Amino acid sequence: MAKYLVVVGGVISGTGKGVSASSVGLLLKFRGHNITLIKFDPYLNTNAGILAPREHGECFLCDDGTECDLDLGHYERIAGINVSKLNICTSGTLHKELIEEQEAGNYLGQTIQMIPHLTDKIQQRLLDLGKDKDVVIVEIGGTVGDSESFAFFEAVRQFKQKLKDDVLIGMVAPILWVDTIKEFKTKPLQNSVKELQRHGLQPDVIFCRVDRPVPENIINKVSMQTNVRKECIFDAPDVQSIYQVPLGFYDRHVDDLFVDLFRLPRSSCRIQKYREVVQKYVDNHMPPIEIGVLGKYDNCDEAYMSLKEALIHAGIANEAKVNIRWIKSDELEKYKDNRGLHKHFEGLSGIIVPGGFDKRGTEGKIKAIQYAREKKIPFLGICLGLQTAVIEFARNVCNLDANSLEFNKDTAHPVIHFVEGQEGLEKKSANMRLGSFDCELAKDSLALEMYGTKLIKERHRHRFEVNPAYLEEYNKHGLIVSGRNPDTNLIEIMELDRNIHPYFIGTQAHPEFKSRLQFPSPLFKGLVSAAIKYSQENTKVDGK
Ligand code: GLN
């Protein structure tokens, strides 16, 4: 029978429940336990794929094509598990299931209610997920007291009533540091615990989030006010990198506590290798390089979370500290020539055009790609980044009046067209080409050199693809296909001949989703390596 740790948030959301849950998961995994995580999100959307990244941050994509909350990226990158549709559940999907079951006649005249029908469904998800696991870590989105999460808390209460000590509640909540009076304030946290108690639940463990270490007397106070043993209250101060959180938890013996509370066998925690990798990054002795990323949001760190992390991983693998310069693509659109662009790109050693949807900012991306191509700055195009690179090449090298059908339905040369079966789809949700697909890499290609293996698998999320009708024209000028889907022949990767450009490559996939601290994405690793070379060569030139 699996043990369950339910992680809830107090006071405000955004205090690191996902990172905390994943960090506990990683430590238990390092101790040899078979773990998984699930996120319950209280919103009514059934699919995170159509949530705006400017509000919600990136849409993370699983191998099975599930589009989900960015916290599932933490589960993969920090806890090191592979997530799928089983690891995410929104109120919307549960309600939809109930309604569909009712329409199919499954309830035969019963009144369908929040309790027990919805709460039973939630508990069933937990039981199903726990079947072959030692520990299931359950994250409830939002904050204790949110009216829309009532069903989840009620389900957890019933679940705990049945499984007793096999279900633990962990709360992640901020305590405040008030600088004017130089004091910590714990009242909001105390109130959140009271709110949790109104649901019939008592926290077993509390993580106090604050920007500095918390003294013992404050921990004692929280303990006294909340009825939680002080050994079960941890300070969780801000750290420079999320990858340090498991180390901080380990140093505070958080894993020992959970193993004891769950009555799991004691085993050693194999954390040393992980510590070494993280230490290398935080020690910050690695030489810096700067990569420009053409974003289009104000919250780029969140909206391109996996890409940002992939650059960190690639930096560590290359012994370099990668700094990202976010460049707003639509701001580049006003420039007529390179002169204006120059100030945005000065000092950069590499350029990434990430994935995206709709026309806004695409002309700016095309300008950036032209700059990277002409100035031989290492370039990586991801999904829309590949598509805009093809448009750029068709226009500026092959002299075609080209565009994507996504941006101009009447373009003279639709160099990017619909993936078969996508044209005419009216529904906007969960119906793109989604999930992991094979790609076969061409002999002697840069792609093959980077991946080191002929058959690769990456995750996809797109409606459009490169139109093969123009390939001959591209080939004449050195742009070649270096990866294709072996089943459909769909163009997956394109690159410029290495005699023309040292690193210019675009992929229809999203390799950032599979990048890990210890297993960086090959295309990102290659970009950073090329960027280091570019930066060394250009400093030499400048120094002359
Ligand atoms: N909008 C493009 C498409 O649907 C690219 C998608 C992406 O970058 N994920 O094909």
Key terms:
544 residues, alpha/beta, 2 domains, nine-stranded mixed sheet, seven-stranded parallel sheet, binds glutamine
User: What is the strand arrangement across the widest sheet?
Assistant: 13-12-14-15-23-22-21-18-19
- CATH topological fold name of the largest domain: Rossmann fold
Largest sheet: 9 strands, mixed
Q: Mean pLDDT, as a whole number? A: 94
Count of extended strands: 23
Provide the helix percentage: 25-40%
Q: In terms of per-residue confidence, which ranges show pLDDT below 50 for 5 or more consecutive residues?
A: none
Instruction: Give the names of the bound compounds.
Output: glutamine
Radius of gyration: 25 Å
Helix/strand class: alpha/beta
Q: In the residues, how many domains can be counted?
A: 2
Helix count, per DSSP? 19
CATH class of the largest domain: Alpha Beta
**N- to C-terminal separation?**
69 Å
- What CATH architecture of the largest domain do you see? 3-Layer(aba) Sandwich
Description of the molecule:
- The chain has 544 residues and is of the alpha/beta class.
- The chain folds into two domains: 3-22 and 36-231, Rossmann fold, CATH 3.40.50.300; 285-420 and 464-482 and 489-543, Rossmann fold.
- The chain is built from 19 helices and 23 strands.
- The strands form five sheets. Strands 13-12-14-15-23-22-21-18-19 form a nine-stranded mixed beta sheet, with helices on both faces. It has a seven-stranded parallel beta sheet with strand order 5-2-6-1-7-10-11, sandwiched between helices. A three-stranded mixed beta sheet has the order 16-17-20, covered by helices on one side.
- A hairpin with a 7-residue loop joins strand 22 (491-496) and strand 23.
- Helix 13 crosses helix 19.
- The N and C termini lie far apart (69 Å).
- The relative contact order is 0.11.
- The model has no long low-confidence stretch (mean pLDDT 94).
